[in-house]
Amino acid sequence: MRDPHTTTPFLITRRLFVAALSAALSLAACSKAEPGGGEGKGDRAAGDYEVLELRYQGFAGVVSVPELAEDLGYLAPIKLSYVGNTISGPQDIQTVVTGDTDFGQAFNGAVIKLIAAGAPLRAVVGGYGVDKERWSGFYVTEDSPIKAPRDLLGKKVAMNTLGAHHESMLKEYLSRQGFTSAEIAQVTLVVLPPVSAEQALRQKQVDVAVLGDILRDKALERGGIRALFSDYELFGEFTAGSYVLTKRFIEQNPNSARKFVEGAARAIEWARSTPRDEVIARFKALVERRGRNEDVSVLKYWHSMGVAGKGGLLSSKEYQIWIDWLVKDGELKEGQIKAEALYTNHLNPFATPVQ
User: What's the CATH fold of domain 14-128+238-341?
Assistant: First the structure.
């Protein structure tokens, strides 16, 4: 994990990336697993799938789209193999590059950065996003002296990881207020697990904490905090993060890859169309059953996956905004990468024939 006090946006260290990319490119074979079954169109027998097990990392207290898909039977006969938790999107997709996992999810800006550096990845389906129900806010305590954007300079801001969604939101917010990169660098970014951010804020260990979705609502219920701004205020509704597979995996396991995306797409639509109480009940049962010693009480605050596109369909505009941001910030060169080269919808059953 990167130094919590490093503030360079979307940084993936040269040493870490070179090691990850070298390991990935040297892999001669992919893991064997097999998707299929379920209730979807064109279901196949188990023998029609190239792999039957997909390794992944989880997020504590959270039900991810693939986990929901498996629970609903949309991935069968594919099974997910949990290898541990992460709090970092960039780290999650780096494990896909190294071959330690088969799929991962990260903020689209982090996906762009890694692919631009040469990682053989493709985004295949949306994983999370921002809407009027699911968003992240930058919070301070009620008695905090921080009132205006300039008050953030020199302060400590807690977030789940660096080089991803929350760092970009903070820098976009300050950039819109007219601050230079040198001034923005005066803000100290502190990496904390999301479940610890509220406590750190209330104990004055940090000046600002990013609180999102269910953790945000739980903290607001307790009172004593106020928002400075949110990602929803900055950009409105958008798919913010995507699931990625390696190009090798897609080429060598086309049926398994398609089943994974189909299952995720259908799970997104199930969550969108199912009564909220039913979704929450299913989440609670799933979390309790997997036995990872997680707090299910926070799930009552769940409202939305936040994914904008139907079935998690991806669009160029969801990547172009971050390409432009990275170019402006000097992280990418103009024309270095095209949005269309970052993702594919051809595995998604909700895509039109032209996609």
Answer: D-Maltodextrin-Binding Protein; domain 2 (3.40.190)
pLDDT digits (tens, 9 = 90+) for 50-75: 999 999 999 888 899 999 999 999 99
Name the CATH superfamily, with its identifier, for domain 136-235: Periplasmic binding protein-like II (3.40.190.10)
State phi, psi for 211 to the nearest 5 degrees: -125, 125
Long-range Cβ pairs for the range 328-335 (8 Å, 24+): 329/9, 329/10, 329/171, 329/181, 331/9, 331/10, 331/113, 332/112, 332/113, 332/116
DSSP state of 100: S
**Ramachandran sector of residue 57 (left: φ over 0; alpha: ψ -120 to 50; beta: rest):** beta
The pTM is what? 0.79
Q: From start to end of the chain, where are the E strands?
A: 53-58, 79-85, 104-107, 121-130, 136-141, 156-159, 188-191, 208-212, 225-230, 238-246
Task: Describe the strand order of the beta sheet including 121-130 as a list of residue ranges.
Answer: 104-107, 238-246, 121-130
Q: How far apart are CA 138 and CA 105, in angstroms?
A: 22
List b or e across 117-150, with b for residues whose CB sees 16 or more CB atoms inside 10 angstroms.
bebbbbbbbbbbbbbeebbbbbbbbeebebeeee
List Cα–Cα distances, 327 to 176, 333, 335, 338, in angstroms: 16, 6, 9, 12
Instruction: Note the pLDDT tens digit of each residue in 223-274.
Output: 999 999 999 999 889 999 999 999 999 999 999 999 999 999 999 999 999 9
